Amino acid sequence: MQKEKIKTFNEINDIFYPKSIAVVGTNNVTGSVPYDIFENILHDRFQGILYPVSPSEKNVTSVKSYKYVLDIEDDVDMAILVFPSSVAHLAMEQIGQKGIKSMIVISAGFKEVGGKGIEREKKIKEIADKYGISFIGPNCLGVINTDSKCHMNASFARAMPEEGNIAFISQSGALCTAVLDYANAKHIGFSKFVSFGNKADIDEIDLLNYLKDDPKTKVILMYLEEVTNGKALMEAAKKVTAETGKPILAIKSGRTAEGASAAASHTGSLAGSDEITNAAFEQAGIIRCENLEEMFDYAKAFAYQPLPKSKNMAIITNAGGPGVLATDKAINSGLSLGKFEEATTRILKKSLPAAANIKNPVDVIGDARADRYNVAISATIKDKNIDGVNVILTPQSMTEIEAIAEDIVKVVNRSDKPVYTSFMGETDVAKGIDILQRNNIPHYILPEDMVKAMSATTKFNERLKERSESKIKQFSDVNKEKATKILDKAIAENKTYLPEEEAVKVLKAYNFPVLPNGLANSKDEAGKIADEIKYPVVMKIISSDIVHKFDIGGVILNIQNREEAEKAYKQILKNVKKAMPKADIKGVFVQKMVEEGQEVILGLKKDNSFGSVIMFGLGGIFVEIFKDVNFKVAPISEDEVDNMIQSIRSYPILTGTRGSIKRDIKSLKETIQRLSQLAIDCPQINELDINPLIVRNEGNGCFVADTKIML
Amino acid sequence: MEKEKVEAKVKKTIAKVLEKTESEISSDSNFIFDLGADSMQSLQLIAGFEEEFDIEMDEDEALEIQSVKDAVEFIAGIVNK
Predict the structure, then answer these.
(1) Which of A285, A455, A534, A545 pairs with A313 at a CA distance of 20 to 30 A?
(2) Are residues A578 and A617 in the same domain?
(3) Annotation marks residue B60 as catalytic
(4) Are residues A217 and A79 part of one domain?
(5) Alpha helices in A439-478 (DSSP H)
(6) How far is B54 from chain A (nearest CA, A)?
(7) Range of the domain at A417
């Protein structure tokens, strides 16, 4: 599904910065949503004018109330609708007549309840479109803008968060309240906080587009339950990162592989919605987080500190064990412990006791007071070989926790390098942690989480630097018309599966390296074709009724001569007639057999949200048991194809590592690019397997040995 | 019963339950949007109509009634059967 039109910056900005608000449908019932919304806006010091609209009240709290929004004498910038869904359309009609162009629809009882709710949502959207109203919701918690220019808590959350540079947008309203509570306890502030509910009008794509240009936002956090416009989301996210360098951290719930069991191809069964989301987010530069804790671990690092310029970091600890844990995690997460310059080593040697470890990770030893930490942090952060410092503290009887925290704050304020901290424990270290958090120093209870966050920020920065306009290869030697004709004809005949002979024709039209072949309708013809294309050959049944040829004895491999070819023809027909007597048999496909090469699998699956997704992995047990495959959303750029091939675990098998033979990766890359182009040109293809593709020795190309196309 | 009579009794019941004057209630008035009824009052209105007209209203159907006009049509349909 494509998004019709992305909202402009001003359309969204008018919701975040109204000068006047009418709360339509409010009342005086303390603890009810219609009342709490009004009360929150009023008491959290909204910097504009507030109008209650209530058919039953003369005043709400102590503010004069209006029966209808049309009764308000002045112009109103934004309306917040809190009437029940059954009358939302009546209120909306008047809001439109009043000339209000921005709205938040808090009310529930729409699409999420099904039945009449769907109709009601459709109706309010129609009215909004008629009057040119942009709205958030329905079925949402509301919107918060902490900017002191507006200071609007248009939500029924318990408390207004602190001002900060993190924006949080969420499809779940209930999660929002939990996030606010969590963040408040950790002094994490927000720039904008949005619960967008059913996203009947404004969705996450509009919000990303707005937050890209919002000067108050440095980091964007997103919680999604469904991605309806995957392609548009990817485009919006790519723009955010490319144009502003703002990181997007996302939680996408629903990690189960629904639908995969019904898939007819290998690719279909491996490409669950979660794998596709992972691939799409990765390509779009969105950092996918496992849970809220991880999201905020990363968010703190991105929001409060500069990005590490390289993966070379230092660890400073007063405890050996946690230092080792942090070091292990750092190395496993792709970070390096930088080698100190001589000057740094000199300072550390002079200032620390003989028992201290002056190499990275620096151990200032258990009895260290603030002075040792100060020297170690100050020296390492100035070191040219170090681009980030991780400080670990365990509370000993002599540890000056608060003084150390205050020293860290001072050092950080003088440096352009990031410092993350892990004061381990709870009660004893609480005051130190509070100092760190209030001064925007990222803090983590576990040192492993601290270095994991540094790994995330480092990788993001590396990617930002590497990100160039990687081209998408377009082949001119393809025949789109021919492929389309074959596919359309099959669809017109109500076929859901393209027999291999036809599938091969589609691949040939896109100049895939297809092995010599022919279709035989008699044993003599089979022998003749086999003689022509030279032995060994493989023979396979061709029938639109048979998808899994191997399972019913419809394939015979390694046929070495004419006699074997004629015998194989008869045997295949016999096997198929026994297993599927009613199958419509079109003939037996005779194909050259390639003996040498590494089997890989290529595939394609169409996803309703993200479009066509390409899969690559090594064949055989690598795909069957280890599921060592990679996905990318088509079209795939040059860099993305390289990344796709190189990031499977079994990649060294293709490169000639430890006695294996170096395979023709260049040819493999070209084949994946052709598949990407076919996927974009022919959206009729629902699923496609090339399994196996035989990748021969370097310079010898690769060949499609078997293919399957589902429509 | 004539519709005018039904309407007069409906308005009387609404005025009593929602504590309004009859002049505030028109034929087009929506219980929630115009008269400010909450969910509890909507149930009280059904009970009030049943008592006033000595009828029994199906609760699900009755809760679909949103306006004075709807109520008059619905109740007239029952009493004139």
Answers:
(1) A285
(2) no
(3) no
(4) yes
(5) 447-466
(6) 28
(7) 305-466
Max Cα-Cα span within chain A: 100
CA distance A83 to A501: 62
Range 47-66 of B in CB contact (< 8 A) with A: 66
Q: What CATH code is carried by the domain that includes residue A605?
A: 3.30.470.20
Distance, in Å, from the CA atom of A409 to the CA atom of A421, rounded to the nearest integer, reads 11
What type of residue sits at position A80?
A: I
For residue A705, what pLDDT is reported?
Answer: 87
* Per-residue pLDDT reduced to its tens digit, B22-63: 899 999 999 999 999 988 898 899 999 999 999 988 888 888
Q: What are the two backbone dihedrals, phi and then psi, of residue A392, each rounded to the nearest 5 degrees?
A: -110, 135
A296 and A309, same domain (yes or no)? no
**Number of domains forming the structure of chain B:** 1
Domain count, chain A: 4
Looking from the CA of B48 toward its CB, the CA atoms found within 13 Å total 18
> Which residue among B38, B58, B60, B70 is the active-site one?
B38
Geometric angle at alpha carbon A462, from A460 and A464, rounded to 5°: 70
Tokens of B50: 């049943």
Return the residue matching tokens 């949200």: A609
Establish whether this prediction's ipTM goes over 0.85: yes
pLDDT of residue A261: 44
CA distances (Å), origin A496, targets A576, A620, A709: 20, 26, 9
Contacts A54 to B, Cβ<8 Å: 36
Q: Which domain holds residue B43?
A: 3-79
**CATH number, domain containing residue A520:** 3.30.1490.20
Inter-chain touch B32–A83, beta carbons under 8 Å: yes
Q: Do B33 and A83 touch (CB under 8 A)?
A: yes
Domain final residue pick, A300, A326, A346: A300
Where would I find the beta strands (DSSP E) of A428-559? Answer: 497-498, 517-520, 537-543, 555-559
Final residue in a domain of this structure, among A300, A322, A338: A300
Specify the long-range contacts of residues A612-615, CB closer than 8 Å, at least 24 apart: A612/A679, A612/A680, A612/A683, A612/A685, A613/A271, A613/A276, A613/A279, A613/A280, A614/A644, A614/A672, A614/A675, A614/A676, A614/A679, A615/A267, A615/A270, A615/A271
Indicate the average pLDDT of chain B.
91
Q: Which residues of chain A have pLDDT under 50?
A: 259-263
Instruction: Tell me whether residue A487 is in a domain.
Output: no
Q: From the list A27, A29, A87, which residue is nearest B30 (CB)? A: A87
* Distance between B38 CA and the closest CA of chain A, angstroms: 9
We report the CATH number of the domain holding residue B43 as 1.10.1200.10
Judged by a CB distance cut-off of 8 A, whether residue B38 touches chain A is yes
Beta bridge partners of A336: A312
Q: Is A497 helix (H, G, I), strand (E, B) or coil?
A: strand
Q: What is the pLDDT of residue A469?
A: 63
- CA–CA distance, A486 with A289 (Å, rounded to integer): 43
Yes or no: say if B36 and A55 are a contact pair by the CB < 8 Å rule: yes
The residue type at A5: K
Residue A678 is encoded by which pair of tokens? Answer: 């076919």
